[in-house]
Each structure stands twice: as C-alpha cells, then as structure tokens.
Design brief:
alpha+beta; 8-stranded mixed sheet; 5 helices; 13 strands; about 30% helix
Length: about 240
C-alpha cells in the first residue's frame, strides 16, 4: 500500500533573527546526518532585522544603528546566499529537503511550486523574475527579481528566496512581503527600491500559511505532521549558536 513521505511542520515561531538562522542551520545539519525528516516551517523576526547573504561582506554602515519603533534593528547573517532583506512586516518560510537532481535554479523552481500554487489558491498569481547577473551589484534583495524570485503581475517582488546546498541536502528559505513599512524600507534601501505590494485585504498570516501548507502537501505529495521544537532540540540549537 502506498504511503506518503512524512515531513515535519514546525509551528509559526517568532524569535530574533540569529535564533531563526540557528534553527534553519540546525535543521539542515540534522537532515544531512539522517537524524531528521524533511521540514517545512514559517516564522517571523522579532526585533525587526536586516539579514545579509552569507557572502555579502559590504553594506552601509548606518544599517548598524537603525531604530524601528523604539528598538534597534538587528543585522543578521544568513547561512544562504543572496542580498540583504528587511524582515519587518513579512513572513518567512523555510524548507529543508533532499533527493533533488538538477541545478540550483531547477531546485528553486521545484521548491517554489508550492508557493505559486498556494498563492494561486488565494487569488494571487505569481511568476518568476527575469533579472540577470547584474543583480549582484544591488545590495537589496527586493530591488531586483531573479529567476529564483516570485513577482506579482505589477512587477512588485512578493517573495525573495535564498538557498544553501550541503551534500544532497537543500535549505531554502525566503521572505514573503506582507505589510512592510514604506518609510523604513526606503530609509534602508532608498526610495527607488520601493514597490507597493497589494494583496487582498482578507489575507492574514493564518490564512496564508494554511494555503501554503495545503499546497506543499499536494506539490511534494507528502503528509505534514505538526511537531514543535522540543526542549532538548532548543538546547542543541542554542548551544550550537553559542
């Protein structure tokens, strides 16, 4: 009798950026060692943060002193590549998976299929960006859309994703822009980088996650099992971070 592959679904988690990146890195290492199933999770960043791509060595010095709603913005480095992303008013997804053949772009598009299908079920059509290699000169991930990114019909970038491969295991995570503050965004990246994301007003984080979870179950032909991080796992994750 056919049995679907089981993935772990970690419930929505709100935490500081360095903690979120430690969790994603830990999940990648655990899956690579054969100790952990493929995983899907969603999370938000508190406090608001700018995440830098792993190889992004230069960024404006004033980013280290930005204040948002009375608190300092974190500047956090991701384990994945790509450019800087503002994590305020966004929802981040992460997928840890193995067994994919093909190049990096093919893997991106295989994984992104659940994002396209999920948003389509919510009445939002997305397509891949078309920017070429020139994007590397732009420090802002959302200032240009590559073939690994998903854009709205008006050209605004809704989802920017980044990826890390280690052996046969892939960590892909990405930021979904929902309710970002235009003033903060333009303060960081400049007014020319801002594009308005217009989504149906009925959509909230719970509705979006439900649609994306259903799409992931269908696109990957899997069963999602909800399993929060255990105390022991938290100790391992925070210990590895230290």
């Amino acid at each position: 009798m056919y049995s679907k592959q089981v993935w772990r679904l970690i419930p929505l988690l709100k935490a500081a950026g360095n903690v979120q990146m430690a969790i994603d890195s830990w999940l990648l290492a655990q899956h690579q060692s054969g100790k952990h199933p493929p995983t899907l999770r969603f999370y938000t960043w508190s406090p608001a943060a700018i995440s830098l791509g792993y190889h992004q060595r230069e960024y404006p010095q004033f980013w280290d002193n930005l204040i948002w709603q009375g608190g300092k913005l974190d500047v956090v480095r991701r384990p994945t590549g790509g450019r800087a992303v503002l994590h305020q008013g966004d929802l981040t997804y992460a997928v840890v998976i193995s067994g994919f053949n093909g190049d990096r772009l093919q893997a991106y598009q295989k994984i992104c299929e659940f994002l396209i299908q999920g948003w389509r079920s919510l009445g939002v059509e997305l397509q891949y960006g078309t920017a070429g290699r020139g994007y590397i000169h732009n420090p802002n991930c959302f200032g240009t859309a590559t073939g690994a990114d998903l854009i709205l019909p008006n050209g605004a970038k809704l989802i920017g994703s980044a990826q890390l491969r280690r052996g046969g295991v892939i960590l892909q995570h990405g930021s979904i822009r929902l309710h970002q503050d235009a003033e903060l965004f333009t303060q960081i990246f400049g007014a020319e980088s801002w594009t308005q994301v217009q989504l149906p007003p009925s959509l909230n984080v719970e509705v979006i996650m439900t649609a994306l979870m259903a799409a992931a179950s269908y696109c990957f032909d899997i069963e999602l099992i909800v399993e929060p991080l255990t105390q022991l796992e938290w100790e391992e994750i925070l210990g590895a971070r230290g």
